[in-house]
Design goal:
Mean pLDDT: 89
Radius of gyration: 16 Å
Number of helices: 2
Oligomer: single chain
Distance between the termini: 28 Å
Low-confidence stretches: none
Shape: elongated
Length: 57
C-alpha cells in the first residue's frame, strides 16, 4: 500500500498510463480496482455461505 500511495501521490486523476494497448486514467484504474475488489468480496461471501450455511450480514 505504501508503494501504491507513493506512486499515485504526485499524479492527477486525469493523468494517463498505458494499459493493454490503450491509455487509461488514474480515475479509471481506481474505479476498476474498486469493482474488482467488490466482485471478489462477493465471491468470498458465496463460499462462506456454502461452508457455514449462513446468509446475509
Amino acid at each position: 500500500m505504501a508503494a501504491a500511495r507513493k506512486n499515485c501521490a504526485a499524479r492527477a486523476l486525469d493523468d494517463t498510463s498505458p494499459f493493454m494497448g490503450a491509455r487509461v486514467t488514474l480515475r479509471w484504474i481506481y474505479t476498476h480496482m474498486i469493482g474488482e475488489y467488490a466482485r471478489h468480496c462477493g465471491h468470498a461471501d458465496l463460499i462462506r455461505e456454502r461452508v457455514d450455511g449462513r446468509t446475509g450480514v
